[in-house]
Amino acid sequence: MQIKIRHEILSYASLLISGIVMSLSIQTFGTQAEEIKTVDLIVHGRYVVTMAGDNQVIEHGAVAVDDGVIVAVGHGSEIAAKFSAEKEITGKDRILMPGLVNGHTHTAMVLFRGMADDLTLMTWLQNYIFPMEGKFVDPEFIEVGMSLACHEMIKGGTTSFVDMYFYADTGADVIEQCGLRAILGSPSIDFPSPGFKGWDDSFAAAVKFVKNRKSKSGRVIPAFAPHAPYTVSADHMAQVSKLAKELDAPITTHLSEDRAELALVLDRYNTTPIKHVESLGLLENKLIAAHVVHPTDGEIKILAKYKVGVIHNPTSNLKTAAGISPVPEMLKQGVRVGLGTDGAVSNNDLNMWEEIRLAALLHKGVNYDATAMPAETVMYMATKGGAVAVGLDHLVGDIAVGKRADLIQVDLSGPHMTPLYDVISHLAYAASSSDVVTTIVDGNILMDNGKLLTLDAEIIRQKANEIAARITRALNKE
Question: Are residues 11 and 117 in the same domain?
Fold first, then answer.
């Protein structure tokens, strides 16, 4: 009898334990099912360079993306435990980082690449660029030129850019198609330009563009683009300032670029370009000022005070002999400084990696200071700092939860990337545009393992060469 009771007790205990284990197992599996969320995309990196906060580099990291937004950043195993994805991109031998921000360019000018080299800025502009634009720039030129430029930027890891060039509506359509992000300025100038007789119609078109150009994707932000203080009168600059405030629109312009500009503004207004536009209220706007090569110490403080976004274009400034911008001092004084390529006719490419390296090396040399512009500083300028300078930092610039997923992967397998001791150093001093293998904007993959997905490269090259042949024939007849 005792044996039987004991047996029943043991059997009951066994059943009870089995039930508890089964219950725990069901709860555990139920919890896992609730925790694992399906997202659109997971991107891995041997190193994830976030450019956010103190922990900027995560080894064996990953980023989860849903509906174009970064929803998680962390170690790959942590992301795998919480998320599954319809598309997953490997991180083997790759650095995952924010896309590059090109703060100043004229993209369609790639079709003039190499046509007018080794000239002073004013000679280059007045005797070559302005006349060529008048003869050859039309909507087809913009469509093909900007497509070619987008091709080049996607291949090189630029995900956001600030552009000022003609036929802005055509340009906006190309940007929407190719998938990049842009602040796009509709240019205004006091004399005839492609599609316009002068200031009145060009500015009217700019106002219409800013008011009516509603980006379906949210990736194209319309802006005003008065060319420069020496090509736009004081009254017209003030007009831009007033409308930009009313419409809460950004302004992009050239400012304090060259000594000839300083001389022209001094002769006309008895002041400097920066103080001139300050007096017109331009600095009170969301201003993106390209070049700023010749600010005085006092003007650097003015730029910091108004939170002007200054875009450093080292290659273009050297090629046109405009000078060397005092970027280390501007950064020290709290000026928001990003990097830009300028147009491919004064560079001659849209390669942000060249600007990163040149910005780091140039200022060391001219200041006799190897600590000036360290690798981390120039990488910041090309990503988050650039986004701050152009007013996009609420959307992009770093890899952080809530930001739009503008990401690139840089290949580490090349001999020039081996060995690796410091990831940031490699990005600033060793990486090149050809190392970019993946480009993502708004969570959409524009280039996967080196393959363009939103543009037909062969057709673009063919059309670009056809336009170039027409230009060559026309020039040969003159």
Answer: no
